[in-house]
């Protein structure tokens, strides 16, 4: 493979992304380095994954690599075609010729067609802005919250390329400078048109044991499972973007993975990038794109159905930063037909990539014990989507048998086990609140603290239980094992809460109950907790004490 040394000499400079290192990768030994596109695909079987300056950047770069893979391989056409790729260790070899063919469009500094940019982009005042506009880890006006100083003055070409990809995917909304030639400009500004495309998604993709496996597992077939076909093209196989934006429907996943939601032009001095011009690009409404976009879950929107007079209307299901992925496992493994339950349309749709993996395991292309990591990534925006407040990044290791379309008992028990945890944690919160009431204290702080403790303690046991679920001949028996583990942990937390309740809680006080005033003490609060636990988990083998005989503990 020939090496290309980038020329950095003013307007005639070049930074060839197919040959110059710019994508961060993690090796199987945990080492980190930057590679060119050619090297990434040539060594994909020996790499663990790509990495970015932020998790959202990693997701954006993974989508870029998927667009290249999908377009270069022309498919797969169906699951049998995919199985041939999976079994062929050299299946990514055609990518090298593909990169040769489109090499000119991967030049970050090309004078006419710079990668993911618009040549000649400018404002009426010829302004060039700080690189803070594209570097997402620099909160505007909040320098003390950043790993960098208040401004970013220079970026190496490779890092700048990563931020360009990220900006198209996750750039914030808000009022932006108007570009010459953009018909949407009013008074030199373009008013909010929303975040980059991926910013509105609750991103989900599947991680394998290598980057090669990751790319193939997320390579959803084009045989009717996704809209788009022969016309689906990534950005570099389209005419270079002009100032302004074009409203059009996506042609398929390659189009969406590289959607040009912004217009960008980097300024450089031959050695590094020194500034940027950034404006709005192609707008795209998120509703009902579930047949094009496989890397997010979807939810029905009754409000949009009423507003638009359409049925059904699905919107991307964004992530809750306060809720770990294992707690929402139902959105990952629930089969679409199960979710309907007699309704005309499902309330939720799991990500298309997991529908695809479900087909692969159901047809026997993946063994039932095969483990995949469901990776979730998302940005949480604040203040009218003009800033990024938080980033969600989590993984859940699970056997693919959970996605099997005919063998649903494993998935149902996995979901039920997560529900067990939710109900037990709620009971722990109620216990903490009752102890606070018995002592005459406010209840919300103790309730929230006990629930956080409960979820923290249950998270790792659940993940471990889930990872080996496929090894069990009887998933119902494994659920009983889980209940016993949850019960033991709950009693341990209960003991800690009761012991630390204080003398006032043991003395107690009169509180309002369903059937009238109740003298609430720490001892009675514990009895109520045991009753709640029995209702949630049932009686333990050998019994757990007299809790089941206690009066209904629910309070008004």
Describe the overall structure.
This protein has two domains: 1-406, no CATH class; 410-549, Topoisomerase I, Chain A, domain 4 (Orthogonal Bundle). The chain is built from 16 helices and 15 strands. It has 556 residues and is α+β, with helices and mostly antiparallel strands. Helices cover 35% and strands 15% of the residues. Strand 14 (509-513) and strand 15 (516-520) form a beta hairpin. Helix 2 packs across helix 4 (94-101) and helix 12 runs parallel beside helix 14 (475-499). The termini are far apart. The protein has helices spanning 37-42, 55-73, 79-87, 94-101, 157-170, 211-217, 253-257, 302-308, 330-333, 336-340, 352-362, 409-438, 444-467, 475-499, 503-507, 522-537, and strands spanning 23-27, 32-35, 47-51, 176-177, 189-190, 203-207, 262-268, 273-280, 298-300, 314-316, 348-349, 371-382, 387-399, 509-513, 516-520. Residues 1-11 and 542-549 have low confidence and may be disordered. It is globular, with a radius of gyration of 27 Å.
Report the end-to-end length measured between terminal Cα atoms. Answer: 73 Å
Question: What is the topology, as strand order, of the major beta sheet?
Answer: 2-1-3
- How large is the count of helical segments? 16
How many strands appear in the DSSP assignment? 15
Q: Round the mean pLDDT to the nearest integer and report it.
A: 90
The coarse silhouette is: globular
The figure for the number of domains is 2
Could you say which structural class the secondary elements and strand pairing correspond to?
alpha+beta
Largest sheet: 3 strands, antiparallel
Low-confidence runs of at least 5 consecutive residues: 1-11, 542-549
Protein name: Type I-E CRISPR-associated protein Cse1/CasA
Organism: Streptomyces griseoviridis
Pfam families: CRISPR_Cse1 (PF09481)
């Amino acid at each position: 493979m020939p090496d290309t040394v980038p020329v950095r000499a003013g307007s005639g400079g070049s930074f060839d992304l197919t040959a110059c290192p710019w994508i961060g990768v993690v090796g199987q030994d945990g080492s980190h380095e930057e590679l060119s596109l050619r090297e990434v695909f040539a060594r994909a079987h020996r790499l663990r994954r790509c990495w970015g300056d932020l998790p959202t950047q990693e997701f954006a770069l993974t989508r870029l690599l998927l667009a290249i893979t999908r377009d270069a391989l022309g498919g797969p056409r169906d699951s049998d075609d995919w199985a041939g790729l999976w079994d062929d260790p050299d299946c990514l070899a055609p990518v090298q010729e593909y990169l040769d063919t489109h090499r000119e469009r991967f030049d970050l500094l090309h004078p006419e067609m710079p990668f993911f940019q618009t040549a000649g982009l400018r404002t009426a005042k010829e302004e060039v802005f700080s690189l803070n506009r594209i570097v997402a880890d620099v909160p505007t006006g909040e320098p003390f919250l950043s790993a960098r100083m208040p401004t970013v003055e220079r970026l190496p070409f490779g890092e700048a390329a990563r931020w360009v990809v990220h900006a198209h995917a996750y750039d914030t909304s808000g009022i932006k400078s108007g570009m010459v030639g953009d018909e949407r400009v009013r008074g030199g500004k373009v008013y909010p048109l929303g975040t980059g495309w991926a910013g509105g998604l609750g991103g989900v993709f599947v991680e394998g044991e290598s980057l090669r496996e990751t790319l193939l597992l997320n390579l959803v077939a084009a045989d009717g499972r996704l809209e788009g076909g022969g016309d689906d093209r990534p950005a570099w196989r389209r005419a270079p973007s002009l100032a302004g934006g074009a409203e059009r429907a996506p042609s398929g996943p390659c189009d969406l993975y590289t959607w040009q939601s912004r217009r960008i032009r980097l300024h450089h001095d031959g050695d590094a990038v020194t500034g940027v011009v950034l404006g709005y690009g192609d707008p795209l409404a998120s509703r009902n794109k579930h047949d094009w976009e496989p890397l997010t879950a979807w939810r029905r929107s009754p409000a949009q159905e009423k507003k638009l007079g359409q049925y059904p209307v699905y919107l991307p299901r964004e992530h809750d930063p306060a809720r770990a992925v294992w707690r929402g496992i139902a959105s990952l493994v629930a089969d679409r037909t199960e979710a309907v339950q007699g309704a005309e349309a499902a309330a939720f749709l799991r990500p298309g990539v997991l529908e695809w993996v479900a087909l692969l395991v159901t047809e026997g292309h993946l063994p039932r014990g095969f483990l995949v990591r469901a990776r979730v990534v998302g940005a949480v925006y604040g203040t009218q989507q003009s800033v990024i407040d938080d980033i969600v990044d989590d993984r859940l290791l699970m056997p693919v048998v959970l996605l099997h379309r005919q063998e649903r008992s494993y998935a149902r028990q996995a979901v039920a086990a997560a529900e067990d945890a939710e109900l037990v944690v709620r009971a722990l919160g109620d216990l903490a609140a009752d102890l606070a009431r018995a002592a005459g204290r406010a209840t919300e702080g103790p309730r929230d603290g006990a629930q956080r403790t409960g979820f923290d303690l249950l998270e790792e046991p659940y993940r471990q239980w889930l990872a080996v679920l496929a090894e069990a001949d009887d998933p119902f028996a494994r659920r009983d094992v889980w209940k016993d583990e949850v019960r033991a942990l709950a009693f341990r937390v209960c003991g800690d809460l009761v012991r630390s309740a204080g003398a006032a809680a043991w003395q107690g006080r009169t509180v309002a109950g369903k059937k009238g005033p109740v003298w609430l003490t720490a001892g009675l609060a514990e009895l109520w907790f045991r009753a709640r636990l029995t209702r949630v988990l049932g009686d333990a083998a050998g019994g757990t004490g007299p809790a089941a005989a206690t009066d209904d503990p629910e309070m008004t």
